[in-house]
Design a protein that fits this description.
alpha+beta; nine-stranded antiparallel β-sheet; globular
């Protein structure tokens, strides 16, 4: 009699286990040799062309740019593919500063990239006119292409969109605090 009760229980358990959805592990930060780990770009055409921003390399060093480069960041969105050469060209066109992020903070920030990759994006909305667009990105490795993919954190200004993951929001806050000193007032936040 005991065997008859065990068999149905085993069948029910097998069926239940097969219904469980497999959740992929969060991808780690996978680009130890990426020329750029984080970036913020501002682009505005309203009163003449403006393109400036900053980049943080894999050593935590800050680069600033206020130049018209041949690479237009307004074409970059979430999950855009970059080659190492393009990222190196962006760094070469920028001004290397003496500013280096604290190692512990920088490590914490890099650890938030993997979970941010999985974040869904809000719907892009028109928010302002003539404000320009501030776009904040992280970059992660793409083994299939031997390149790097952009991870949108926040886009604010004329158009607004944000990564809805808690990790992306935290990363955006850390970038604002430690790179910009929270001094930049962003109009029209999503």
């Amino acid at each position: 009699m005991r065997t008859i009760q065990t068999v149905p229980a085993a069948v029910v358990l097998t069926v239940c286990l097969s219904c469980i959805t497999r959740i992929d592990p969060i991808p780690p930060y996978e680009n130890p040799d990426s020329p750029i780990v984080f970036a913020m770009t501002y682009t505005n055409y309203a009163w003449g062309y403006q393109h400036n921003g900053w980049y943080v390399n894999d050593e935590g060093r800050l680069y600033r740019t206020d130049k018209d480069t041949s690479f237009k960041f307004e074409n970059v969105r979430h999950d855009s593919l970059f080659t190492k050469e393009i990222l190196n060209q962006l760094l070469q066109a920028a001004l290397m500063t003496d500013e280096i992020l604290d190692r512990g903070t920088f490590s914490d920030m890099k650890n938030l990239i993997g979970p941010s990759v999985r974040g869904e994006l809000s719907t892009a909305r028109h928010l302002c006119a003539d404000a320009g667009i501030w776009t904040y990105f992280a970059f992660t490795g793409d083994a299939a292409s031997d390149g790097y993919r952009s991870v949108l954190l926040v886009m604010a200004g004329d158009w607004g969109q944000k990564n809805l993951s808690e990790e992306a929001a935290k990363l955006f806050g850390l970038l604002r605090q430690h790179v910009e000193g929270d001094t930049l007032l962003l109009p029209c936040m999503p």
